Structures are given as C-alpha cells and as structure tokens.
Amino acid sequence: MHLGPDRVARLQILRTDLEQAAVWLSRPVRLMEVCGTHSHVIGRWGLRQVLPEGVELTSGPGCPVCVTTGGQVEMALELARCGIIMVTFGDMMRVPGPSGSLAQARAAGCDVRAVYSPAQALDIALAEPAREVVFLAVGFETTAPSVASVVKQTAEAGLRNVSFLSLHKLIPPALEALMDNRDSRIDGLLSPGHVSVVIGTEAYRGLAETHGVPCVVAGFEPEDILRAVTMLLGLVATRRVDVLNAYPRAVTPGGNRTAQALMAEVFEARAADWRGLGKIDGSGLALRERYAGLDAAVRFGLVETAVADPPGCRCGDVLRGLLRPQECCLFAQACTPEAPVGPCMVSSEGACAAAYRYERLEVGGTDLDLEASLAAASLGRRSR
Amino acid sequence: MCLAVPLQILEMSGSVAVCGHAGLRAKARLDLLDDAGVGDWVLVHAGFAITKMDPEEAREAWALVAEVSDDAPRP
pTM for the complete prediction? Predict the structure, then answer.
C-alpha cells in the first residue's frame, strides 16, 4: 500500500493528536469498535498497532452474518433444500450452520443466489413466476430500510411467489445487552457509521447515559477512525458521558427519518437470538401483521431451533469483546478463511477474518510509526 | 456488510437512478430519500441511496481513495 506524502503527514498529525489525548488517561482503557466494517478498516490500515500504550480497541458484535445463529442458518438451509430459490447477500453464503452452509447447499444442487441489492429478489421472482423465491434478509439498521422498501413494493405489485425471511437485527438493544454484562468492561464505544446514517447519533444517548459509556460515531477512512478514537479518549479522560459525531459528512443527530418510517411501517421489533449474546428483547425485526403474507417464516411454517456452536469455537466470546481472535485455540489452525469453523472467520468483516488477514504477523510494540505499521499491515497481506 | 459508496446521481427514472463517479456506474433506488435529484451526491448501500451528501465532502472522500494504491506510487 502506497500513500502520498501529504496523506502520510496528515495521518502522522492525527496520530500525534491521539497520543496527546492518551496522556490524560489515569488508567488503561478498553474501547470497542462495534462495526465489522470498522474492524476491517482498522486491520487493513494496521491501526491497532499504532494505538498509544494503555489503549485497547476490541471488536464487537457489529457483523450481521457473524451474529446469525446456527439455528437461523438452518432455517434457510431447510428452505433451500426443498426446491425454493434462496436469495441473499454474498456474505451469508459461507456461514456454517449445523448441516453445512448455503454455499455447500448450492454445490449440492440447491438454487441459492447471491445478490448485491434486495431489489434483485423481485427481478428473480418476475423471471421465475412458477417458482417460490425467498429473500434471506440479514443486516442492521443500514440494510433493513432497503428491505422494508422491497417488501412494500412486493405487496403493492401483488407478487405472490416471493417472501422474506427476516433475520434483521438492531444495534442499540445489542449494545444495551453488552453493557449490562459487567464482564465486557468497555470504557467507550466507537459507534457504527452507516447504521448511524439511518438511526442518527441521538439513538445512542439513552445507552450512553444509562451505562455511563461515551459514544463517538466514526466514518470509514483511517483518518475518521483515528479522529474518533481521539475524541473518545478525550471523553473518557474527562469522565464526560456524551455522544459525539466524528462522521458529520454522512450522519446527523436525527438520522434518515424517511428510512426510519419505512422500517417502522413494515417491521416490528421482537426478541431475537444473537450468536454470542443470546436472546435479546426487542433486538430483531419481524414483518408486521399486515405483511404476514410475505413472511417466509409464516408461509413455510419455519421454527427456529437452538443449535450449539461448533466444538471449540469461541466466536461468542469474540463478539462480546472478551477474547481476541488470536487467543482462540482454533485461530489460523483449524479455523481459516478457506475452511472457517465459526462465522467470525467467514465474512471479511468478521473480527477473526480481519485478524487473520491483517494482524496475524504480530508486529508487536506500540512504538512503531504509522508508516512502518502500514507497511507491516501491507506485508502481512502480501505474505499469504 | 455496511459498506456504502458516495456516488453522484447521473440519470433518474422514477425512483431508480443511475449513479456514478469516474468510470464507475451503479443502479440505485431512491426510495429512502425524499428529495434527491440529478446531480446530487448520495451514499449507496446494497443498491439503495441511504443519505444525501455534501458534494465537496463526497469528492474529498474519493480523493482519499485515489491517494492509495496497492502497487507503485502514481506519477
């Protein structure tokens, strides 16, 4: 990875700001990057290695496919195996369930299709009028409004051969559950940028005040993340509980009201099971009664069963920030991106996959300059 | 899963737009925005524009991407 001299200079300044913010800390602090896309950027740019001493940044539960349970994958597999066209995002394809993954089902002859946009499910349903099409809907508040819009269009168009299996999950209730658990010992939350585009910064206010945990919404360039961590350290050092916005080019206090209204019109909150976090009240989205005819769970009588995690898999602890991926016995041995045991190794945004790709060669120490660290991250990538 | 890309609306037909920047072209639905028009910059996630963006800031975001290359430094 090569950077222009101007950008390296700007990054160095941001790094100096970060170090200066850390001077005021009276004890070691633990921050969590909630979002899997942040974990990916942090790994790619080697940002964990440039954190000041006493500052730890741990990954959280914000990778939608990682928090999908084995039981939820099994429901999708059950449908795929009975001749239905199963449509979903590419990230979902390789997530292992108790009897395999959707990719394996496809290899065995099932009709499973990866799409970029949920609107493509309608195109497929129109092109295949004699067959049932199910869209397996995963994702947080970033994605749920788009799916809500497609559900509404399906109802308006009177399309009868398509339905939706909603595994959508909501970030604030999961963060509440995480903060309720004292084991996680989180001093500050780096809040997800694109979830916040939809829900707005004020959505974290209650959580921040109830748990005394400062939150800073971050964007996805390394500059955004360095700036957000610096702001978070400032709040932690001064014991100020607040919600700040380090991604103002996309995020507003109130979020996207049109998207919120669509989501509320089509979905209602219900309890949902998260890998690692268990059942959390009000943390999932189900289709409302008036859209029950488009609910695949209703149409096909699907029941979610509890499935134990694969033996030895510690994805649950990784998702709660209790364990670094490198500390799992299976990491890079029995569990690799080519042959993943747990979901955190599957998605490129899973904490384990990001650690495998970018942080496997321990560069060690905290005295590296940013350039050296970037070079190390880039070497880590090329050595594969 | 939460990746989103800033793109400019180049053409619109109802609530479907062709968005792009430089050589990149992508179809995006505009159902989540109230007042998007041709020329606006939007953030596109999974085929849907999820917010409008300030044009200056969208161009700056692309400038950052253009500064990084995985090969040799650009002349």
Answer: 0.92
